[in-house]
Amino acid sequence: MSISVAPDEVPHVVVIGAGYTGLTAALELARAGVAVTVLEAEDEVGGLAGTFDVGGERLEKFYHHWFTNDQHVNELVRDIGAEGNVLYRPTRTGMWYANSFFKLSTPMDLLRFTPLSMPDRIRLGLLALRARRVRDWRTLEHVSAEAWLRGMGGARVWEVVWKPLLEGKFGTDVAPRIGAVWFWNKLKLRGGSRGKGGQEYLAYYKGGFAALAEAVAAEVRRLGGEIRLGTRVDGLVREGERIAGVRLADGTTLGGDAVLATVPLPVFADLVRPHASSDYVQSLGRIEFLANTCVVLELDRSLSDTYWLNVSDPSFPFVGIIEHTNFEPASTYGGRHIVYLSKYHAESHPLFTMSDAEVLDFCVPYITRMFPAFDRAWVTGHRVWRARWSQPIVVQRYGELIPAVRTPLPDLWLATMAQVYPEDRGTNYAIREGRAVGRAMVAALPRVRRTAAARRAAA
Fold first, then answer.
1. Reduced to 3 DSSP states, what percent helix, strand and coil does the chain have, rounded to the nearest 5?
2. Fewest CB within a 10 Å sphere: which of 205, 249, 279, 371?
């Protein structure tokens, strides 16, 4: 088929995926007067920010918040006139170490962290400050997270604080390969989201992050864009050397002047394999991923007063316990107290194939060990959510592994969470990348004839 566009026609772009990257790219394209169609396999927009119903309110399947210094999500919220829906709240952070709880929300809490000597507590505090002063992350590209953290904070700080967290996140096999840039970014983000007294503040969107995604989707539609839910892309359509559209699961095709894929790299590799060189397809496999199992508990009472509890215990299977209703009140969810247990792991991990009931059976003894008063009768409901391509493994020299946004195939573009480096995956950077690729595509497309909706948006 031929889909070449005459100079006076509006170019058409097909976007695969309605997560935040795809939606914000579509927003940029639609505002520039480009006709855009977003195809999403799931029945809702938002990607990993998808939701489910709890007490008549929507709740994220995978826990979400953003930092006060997350520039791009804040700009998007202002851009669509939704500032009134953002909630900023102080949070309580803690650590479970040696069968004890330690509060770590403020600098004073750090000075009371008795597992470390006073000199090591000072080293830990200075490490975070020194991390924020790194001006060029490229100087850390060749350094492992372990070497950098040991050098900055000393052996005892590494053994007590950082090693358990890194191994809990990535596993003992993968943790030694993680690059310093990944950890540097985590320290930089959290350090920049604190108030004058050192208290951490985080942001949440009324109705959950899916509500924000739906607001963006509504703006795309207002500008003339189309978003098709429950529509799976099975392949790409090639015309000569260029990609000229997509093949849908129902056997139909949809043409476009350009195609943007925002799906995980392994999924994209399958789509592009029939059309690209073997070298390019192999290059897409250089970045490895961990899966994630996220258990969401509905309780009739609170576990603690801590929002984010880091678990510094290698025998505990979850790296964090996030009590969401110490951030967004339980009253939002009909009085239910919401707790997330998150585990990153290889696809082969037993958690990934257990039934939901088996996962709960697996979790209960660990929760009881940490909270002796806990009784299984507190659990009024639970859900288990799984994501296969959840966390890119950010190794040393990761920047050398990232595929370009413009692929070797003309008119085929790629924007994924694996490409946001030096930052780690997150809504803020999905928005940044989506808007950037959308603007780049506008510049590369044939002359854009501005639609009436686009003219209104620019006015």
1. 40, 25, 35
2. 279
Q: Is 201 helix (H, G, I), strand (E, B) or coil?
A: strand
72: which residues sit within 8 A by CB, 6+ positions away? Answer: 428, 429, 431, 432, 435
Task: List, in sequence order, every beta strand (DSSP E) within 176-225.
Answer: 201-205
Residue type, 244: A
Parallel, antiparallel, or unpaired for β 35-39 and 51-54?
Answer: unpaired
Q: At 279, list the tokens.
A: 């070298």
CA gap 101, 97 in Å, rounded: 7
Q: From CA 453, how far away is CA 241, in angstroms rounded?
A: 33
* Amino acid letter, residue 448: V
User: Strand, helix or coil at 226?
Assistant: strand
Report DSSP state, residue 10: P
* 34's tokens: 């480009």
d(CA 329, CA 331): 5
Q: Is the pTM of this model over 0.85?
A: yes
Along the 459 residues of the chain, how does pLDDT read in single tens digits? 333 334 447 899 999 999 999 999 999 999 999 999 999 999 999 888 888 889 888 888 888 888 888 889 889 989 888 888 888 888 888 898 888 888 887 888 888 899 999 999 999 988 888 888 888 999 999 999 999 999 999 999 999 999 988 998 898 899 999 999 999 988 876 554 455 555 678 888 888 888 899 999 999 999 999 999 999 999 999 999 999 999 999 999 999 999 999 999 999 999 999 999 999 999 999 999 999 999 999 999 999 999 999 998 878 888 889 999 998 899 999 999 999 999 999 999 999 999 999 999 999 999 999 999 999 999 999 999 999 999 999 999 999 999 999 999 999 999 999 999 998 888 899 999 999 999 999 999 976 544 444 444 544
d(C-alpha 271, C-alpha 248), whole Å? 11
Are 28 and 438 in contact by the 8 Å Cβ rule? The answer is yes
